[in-house]
Amino acid sequence: MNVKQKIGFSLLFLTYALSGQAQSTPDGLSFVGLSHDQWSIYATQSGQLKTLPSLSEPRTPSFHTKSQRYAYIV
């Protein structure tokens, strides 16, 4: 096997292995996504994906577990 084949096999195996492990999304998972030409912060709360209110064009969201608050850079 050459390097490309090894990398391809590893990614395929990893994808297969992880797909069987995920039962739900963890609370606090967050990311920035584009929807209707507007950037928003999306986060999971109680197993549901929600859009969080933000001022404008949020960047780099961060979640503080104890206070249950999100912070982001504008």
Gross geometry: elongated
Widest sheet: strand order?
1-2-3
Q: Helix content range of the residues, please?
A: 10-25%
Structural class: alpha+beta
Q: Provide the β-strand percentage band.
A: 35-45%
Poorly predicted ranges: none
* Span between termini: 47 Å
The helix count comes to 1
Oligomer category: single chain
Give the integer mean of the pLDDT values: 77
The largest sheet, given as strand count, sense and whether it forms a barrel, is: 3 strands, antiparallel
Alpha-carbon Rg, integer: 17 Å
H-E order = HEEEEE
Total beta strands: 5
What does this structure look like?
By secondary structure, the protein is an alpha+beta fold. It has a domain at 24-74. Helix content is 23%, strand content 41%. Strand 1 (30-35) and strand 2 form a beta hairpin. The protein is elongated. It starts with a helix and ends with a strand.
